[in-house]
Amino acid sequence: MNRSPTYHVPVLLKESIDGLQVRPGGIYVDVTFGGGGHSKMILECLKGKGALYGFDQDEDAEKNGFSDPQFTFVRSNFRYLSNFMDWYGVKEIDGLLADLGVSSHHFDDESRGFSFRLEGNLDMRMNQRAGINAAEILHTYSEKDLADVFYNYGELRNSRAIAKAVVKRREQKRIETSDDFLEILKPFFSREKEKKQLAQIFQSLRIATNNEMDALKELLMQASALLKPGGRLAVITYHSLEDRLVKNFFKTGNFEGIVEKDFYGNIKSPFLAINTKVIVPQPEEIERNPRSRSAKLRIIEKNGTGK
Would you tell me how many other CB atoms lie within 10 Å of the CB of residue 6? Predict the structure, then answer.
């Protein structure tokens, strides 16, 4: 298949692959295949042995696949990880990588509606074959539900006022494009914080459109069950919501961060933290790829008993 080198620049490439400790002959999963940058390095580490499964629900990503007997592309949301591993007869895996960031390809394609910098239809679906798009959410959600989306996923304090303005506008005119949405939003944001706050509200709408938080929870639970004792899980996050969820799960084995301790006061967790301090991009990487600025890499290893 034809691969596009500009589809997406992989973030924390060396750090994440080193953290996985890929072993030739092992079975690995890249649940956010995208442009294939991380997967390519995993395949190199496999040295012609073992297997790599690359998940991506976007048909554009499938075009970046490899003609390699060790590689299988799975066009699906990673929330169905267990189903597909069972389909392929895989009972355990040695490692899994998840780069949760939106690809450069998506942000730069105005027809997808991910960026407030480009005019395009408000779609925002990672999988354009299923689900309702962002414009439909703006038109069908109640004022309260819209306010919850903007507050819970965008952490915007003026979420109720924005939701009220959206409902008022949709009664007069359909909100179809990013420019339509921006016209509603402009009065609510100061010039000093405009870019940050616009990014937050577009993020909130994207998360709701793709049901990202629930999908991430399902992925982490399934990955934990599939990992062999000693297997590793590496996750790159980009915003506080997903990072908090991953951090809690890695530390305690649950999403609420509820700590359970043994008789001696040690925290009980199914995982061992490989990096006690979160890994972030070096200045040189941020200079090459500004979108990596907010990336955080966390790596855990399943403990010997798997409990």
Answer: 9
pLDDT, tens only, 61-77: 888 888 899 999 999 99
Q: Are residues 291 and 266 in the same domain?
A: yes
CA–CA gap between residue 268 and residue 260 (Å, rounded) = 5
Q: Are residues 273 and 134 in the same domain?
A: no
**Domain housing 152:** 107-210
Does this model's pTM top 0.70? My answer is: yes
pLDDT tens, 106-132? 555 555 655 655 567 888 887 777 778
Give counts: helices (H), strands (E), the chain.
Answer: 13, 9
Same domain, 125 and 155: yes
Residue 37 lies in a domain: yes
Is 205 in the same domain as 219?
Answer: no
The Cα–Cα gap between 293 and 172 comes to 39
Distance CA 96, CA 152 (A): 28
